[in-house]
Structure formats: C-alpha cells, structure tokens
Amino acid sequence: MLSESKRAAILELLKRGRRIRQIARTLGVSRTTVRSIIESGTVQVPRANKAEPCRAQILELYSRCDGNVVQVYKELTARGAQFSYQTLTRFVRRNRFGNAKSNVTRSTVDAQQWLTEIIYGARSLEMLNTEVTDSNDLHTLLGMVKNGRLRERKKALTILARKRSIPNATISVILHSSRRTTRRYFTIYSKAGPSMLFGSSTRHAKTPTEDPEKTKHILEFLHQRPTSFGINRTSWTQRALIHAYKERYDELISGRTVQRLIKSSGYSWRKARRILASPDPNYDEKVEVLLRSSCHLLKASSFSFSTSGVQYKFESGVVKRTALSTTFRGSRDRKPRREQQPLLPR
C-alpha cells in the first residue's frame, strides 16, 4: 500500500496536467493504482478496521481472559470472527486496552508489587481467591510465605505467581533465581503437591573418604622418586603425582582427592612428602625388625630413634610411630631434646 507522500505526489502531478501513464512511469507504480488514488481524491490511506464491529465482544473477552490476546482471539474465532490475529493485536494497541489486573502478568514492576503485598500481608486469602485461577492450597502457600525459610518462601511465591498467570521468566527475575529452578518448583508442585515441594530434600551421599586401592597406589608413588616415572624432579608435587597416576593407571584424579586420600592414611601432603620419601615400601617393617634386634642386643626394655621426621619407639613389645612437629619448612629436621639413649651398635 502506498504511503501518504506518494499519494500526495500523484495528486500534485495530476494538478500539473500530467497524464496517468506519465505519473505511473515517473513514480514507478501501476496505472491502476494511480487511477484508484485519483478516484479517491485524498492522501489518507483508507484502512478498513475489520475488528471494529466486534469492539464490545473484544472488550468483554479482554477483561474476562485477563488481558490474554491469544485467548481472546480463540474465543472470537469460535464465535465466527473473520479477521487475523495481527488485526486483533493492532486493534488492541490502537485503542490502548488494558487494566490494572492485566498489567501484573505483563509488567515486571507490577508483578513485583503484587508479590510484595503478599509478603507483607496486604493481600488476604479472600482477595487471592478472586485473583488466581486455582485456589487450592492457598492457605498452605501463604503460611510458607510468612513463616518459612528463604527457600520455602521462594517456592511458595513461585507457585502463587504461576497461579496468577505471571510468566516464569518474570518470576525468576523477581526472586533472583534461575528459570530452571522456578520451573522445577512448579513441576514438583503440579505432580506431587505441596507435601513434596516443601518436604525434606534428599541430600546426595558424601564421597567416601577412604579408597584403599587408590591410597595404596598413591603411597607407592610417594615411596619412589619422580625420576622413576620419567618426571625430571627430585621431589613430588601434586601435579606431578596426578600426571604419573594417570600415565600408570589411565585414570584422572584431582588434587583434592590426593589430599583426601593421604589425609585418610594419617598424613598431610607436606608431611607425606618428607616422611614417605623413602624408596623402600617395606621401610616400616624393617624398622620394626631393627628395633627388636637392638633391644635384644642391648638388653633394654625400650628403645627409640628418629629419622625423616618420625620417632620410632619400641616398648613392651610394641613399636610406636610418632611424627615430629619441630621441623622448619625447607630445612633439615630438628630433633627435640631428650634424655640420653643407648647408641645403636654398628
């Protein structure tokens, strides 16, 4: 359809004595179009509003459907209306239909104000019964809004807003939650009701702190030098240990897992690097044999010595191992002062 400026140009050229063919060639339009505009004699674009005869029905349905134009169009089509959905939306915009009730479902500010009034008790149960589409469980939901914890209040407000036909995207913005979370709340409520929605959530089982097989593998690594695994280092780092473990067992473990497994065996990571530095995996067994033999040779009831930050003590037929804490970081071990002990024979 031609604009008003082109229609005015056609009429102006006609006043100057131009023929229809010349006008059509100059403006690039068809002669039929030029002829119809000349016959109308006006520059205004005639648009027949097909929705105008149904104005009363549109107003009634718009109020009943809470401003939902799609639902209004379905109702009008069922009643035999013969115009498109775009015609209806253009008619609604031009006539500026709308009321305070419909703005709640279309405006984030109005929806937030509506939820705020519920939180502070400005909207009673009787008022909500007339506003929402489904009045079931309103008493329970209002109780959770007033007395529940933060997560329970968010769940209750989500359900109330959905009952009020507020879109999920608007709810997520107002409650500062993701759309996926608010959608999950409504899905749980729709399937199982408020008992499941506000019930105790099932917590995931914690990761077991002990894994004997992995712990054994890590300790075996620590008992050997990194050069044995093709790593150009003299001491272990967590990154080097993880790399060696992946190369040997084709399994990736995290640094947190390494710390957890070492801690379950009675060491911290820093202490394990010092104490478990011996390349002999049977080091503790050999120390026990050595202590028993020394006590037998010296005819002593107890015997002890320290090495690599650990104090080994044989007493009453039992070998006790104690980690020493008097060690400077990055320096040699400092042994605490103690009484004179029998010397170990060469």
Quick structural overview:
By secondary structure, this protein is mainly alpha-helical.
Topology:
Blueprint: H1 4-15, H2 20-27, H3 31-40, H4 55-64, H5 69-78, H6 85-95, H7 100-106, H8 108-119, H9 125-131, H10 138-147, H11 150-163, H12 168-175, H13 179-192, H14 194-197, H15 212-222, H16 238-249, H17 255-264, H18 269-275, H19 283-298, E1 302-307, E2 310-315, E3 318-323
Antiparallel strand pairs: 1-2, 2-3
Helix pairs in contact: 1-2, 2-3, 4-5, 7-8, 10-11, 11-12, 11-13, 12-13, 15-17
Walk me through this protein's architecture.
By secondary structure, the chain is mainly alpha-helical. The protein folds into five domains: 37 residues; 47 residues; 95 residues, no CATH class; 64 residues; 65 residues, no CATH class. It is 56% helix and 5% strand. The protein contains 19 helices and three strands. It has a three-stranded antiparallel sheet, covered by helices on one side. A hairpin with a 2-residue loop joins strand 1 and strand 2. The N and C termini lie far apart (113 Å).
**Which regions have little confidence, pLDDT < 50, spanning 5+ residues?**
325-333
- In the sheet with the most strands, the strands line up as 1-2-3
In DSSP terms (H or I, runs of 4 or more residues), the helix count works out at: 19
Count of spatially separate domains: 5
Overall SS class = mainly alpha
Strand content: 5-15%
The radius of gyration computed from the alpha-carbon positions, rounded to a whole number of angstroms, is: 42 Å
| Span of the ends, CA to CA | 113 Å
Number of strands: 3
Helix content: 55-70%
Major sheet summary line:
3 strands, antiparallel
Q: State the order of secondary-structure elements, H for helix, E for strand.
A: HHHHHHHHHHHHHHHHHHHEEE
| Mean residue pLDDT | 78
Q: Sum up the overall morphology in one term.
A: elongated
